[in-house]
Write a structure and sequence with these properties.
The protein is 57% helix and 15% strand. With 566 residues, it is of the alpha/beta class. The two termini are 57 Å apart.
Length: 566
């Protein structure tokens, strides 16, 4: 289509150039043939009309191309010279208007030419901005997609598109500032450009995400080496504001045509693979496969179910009791959320909670649980002010700017006593930003709310962090309790309990199902236990019965039906 348009413009250019030459030649003929004999008015009119026509044709030539401008100026200059010479030698003053019109034409052409140059420059600048990332001077997301489309149009046999996402880049922005973050992104781009070949393509998709397209490779082995170098060049330290930073990245790759023949789909698949690389430990390359696509489709399905449950209020809350290890005195309850699919089948929290975290719906889920649990449990707490209601909060929500407002609003609307509330956090909150987490946790403590560190021993905690953080309770993960017969796990639990006593933390063990586990935990000094041995998750009414000492049949909790939609 573009080639046909260019051919049309070329034909129009030659036609206008020919027409201008004819008009100039005809005017010269009129001047030489009739100038002396014709009446002045008729002569001036004829010459004026032809000059105006020349100017119009010349303007069209100028707007077509830069060559048109030069051609029009040359022809008009020749005509000016001819008319000026004739006027000088013959003294025919009736040629003066013609000369003036020709000079006016040249001026008009010049002004239009300059305007077109300015407009073209602005258009090129806008086009550059639309296709280039201003920070790194790399092609942007739009340019990457168009490049992939161009490869397909050119019948490229194969290519691989890889998406690179910097690991924990938020930590650099939080600690060193966004200026240093921008500097780091620029240096990364330079390192990658130095590593790539002339026919490889590198672009920035946005934020800390980049894309590289390689269409010239002999084998998967050589491709692995090229992509691997993209990650390894980041291993050298980055010096930002005089401080050393070590940066890694995760990479996901999709191949054309084996994975997809659509550029947008290729980018999507590479993005899937990149997230798998992050889940598998970061700082590595993962290639897309169809299993990932199935997982994504399942994620989309679950996300839809979560949104529906939020809108229709069809989540259900269960409450698992927590007891003092030595005498079975009730400490309180941990709030657990349950969900069903559209067919009424239960969906495990282990399935839908990670999906909610990936889609940021976890914030809405947290708000829902906070409000409903505190509202439902308020009558029980009012009569039993020594009990604790424990609610899980995701790291994503905790670190959100609006979290404390959400918490305050829930407490205000439910009138729930802060001293009876405990928030359970996981160790992943420290990976995102320890400093910010500490500030928020201090604010939580100022409100009189207790803080529990969930799944301790399975994540990223360090003694330095524990020493500085305002934690009230450590929860030993069920995986250690399950294998408590193993001497190593027993020693590990003993070490956690000993550490907690030194730091003045209380300790609770999850997943206690056997009496020998409880007895050993008691011998080791564990303060509280939670698990099927003494208490399954209960519906609210059964939790009330447990508190007042009425008989409870926890096996009924297995038969919970999904709530009806409002």
């Amino acid at each position: 289509m573009d080639e046909f348009k260019e051919r049309k413009q070329g034909l129009l250019f030659y036609f206008l150039a020919f027409l201008l030459c004819v008009l100039i030649a005809f005017e010269s003929y009129v001047i030489s043939r009739f100038g002396m004999d014709a009446e002045l008015n008729m002569f001036v009119d004829a010459i004026g009309v032809m000059t105006v026509l020349q100017i119009l044709v010349a303007v069209f030539l100028v707007t077509l191309s830069k060559s048109g401008y030069y051609l029009a100026v040359i022809l008009f200059s020749l005509e000016t010279l001819i008319v000026a010479v004739r006027l000088a030698f013959t003294g025919e003053m009736m040629l003066a208007p013609s000369l003036a019109m020709i000079l006016l034409g040249i001026c008009v052409q010049y002004v239009i030419h300059k305007l077109i140059i300015r407009l073209s420059t602005q258009e090129e600048h806008v086009e550059e901005m639309a296709h280039k990332d201003m920070l790194t001077d790399l092609p942007n997301r739009r340019a990457v997609r168009e490049y992939l489309e161009a490869l397909i149009d050119e019948h490229c046999e194969h290519y691989v598109v890889a998406i690179i996402d910097v690991d924990n880049f938020k930590n650099i922005n939080d600690t060193a500032g966004h200026d240093c973050g921008d500097e780091a992104l620029g240096e990364m781009a330079e390192r990658w450009k130095n590593e790539l070949r002339a026919n490889d393509f590198l672009g920035r998709l946005g934020g800390d995400e980049f894309a590289v397209v390689i269409s010239d490779y002999d084998s998967l082995e050589s491709l692995d080496k090229m992509l691997g170098r993209m990650l390894s060049v980041l291993s050298d330290k980055f010096v930002l504001k005089g401080r050393d930073y070590y940066i890694s990245a995760s990479m996901g790759a999709a191949m054309f045509p084996s994975d997809s023949v659509d550029p947008s789909q290729s980018l999507k698949y590479a993005d899937m693979a990149m997230y798998v690389a992050k889940k598998q430990g970061r700082n590595q390359l993962v290639y897309f496969n169809s299993i990932m696509n199935d997982a994504i489709e399942n994620s989309v399905k679950l996300e839809t179910i979560i949104r529906g449950a939020l809108e229709a209020n069809t989540f259900t809350l269960l409450y698992q009791p927590q007891f003092r290890t030595t005498d079975k005195k009730l400490r309180g309850f941990e709030t657990l959320i349950r969900m069903w699919d559209n067919l009424g089948k239960p969906v495990s929290p282990a399935e839908f909670i990670p999906i909610a975290e990936q889609s940021a719906l976890i914030k809405d889920v947290d708000r829902w649980v906070l409000m409903h649990a505190m509202f439902d449990f308020l009558p029980l707490i009012s009569k039993n002010p020594d009990l604790i209601l424990s609610i899980n909060i995701s790291a994503l929500h905790l670190l959100d700017d609006k979290f404390l407002n959400d918490l305050d609003e829930a407490i205000k609307l439910t009138n729930f006593p802060a001293a009876c509330l405990e928030l359970e956090l996981t160790e992943t909150v420290f990976v995102e930003s320890v400093e910010r987490a500490k500030v928020i946790m201090d604010s939580i403590k100022e409100r009189g709310i207790q803080i529990a560190l969930d799944d301790f021993g399975t994540g990223y905690s360090s003694l330095r962090y524990l020493k500085d953080l305002p934690i009230d309770l450590l929860k030993i993960d069920k995986t250690f309790v399950d294998t408590i017969k193993d001497k190593k796990d027993e020693s590990f639990i003993a070490a956690i309990i000993s550490l907690s006593q030194i730091m003045n933390f209380a300790v609770i063990s999850e997943g206690v199902e056997e009496e020998y586990q409880r007895q050993l935990l008691e011998d080791l000094g564990c303060d509280y236990i939670q698990g099927f041995l003494w208490g399954r998750p209960l519906i609210l009414d059964d939790a009330r019965k447990l508190i007042v000492g009425e008989p409870v049949h926890p096996e009924e909790a297995k038969e919970i039906k999904p709530p009806r939609k409002n």
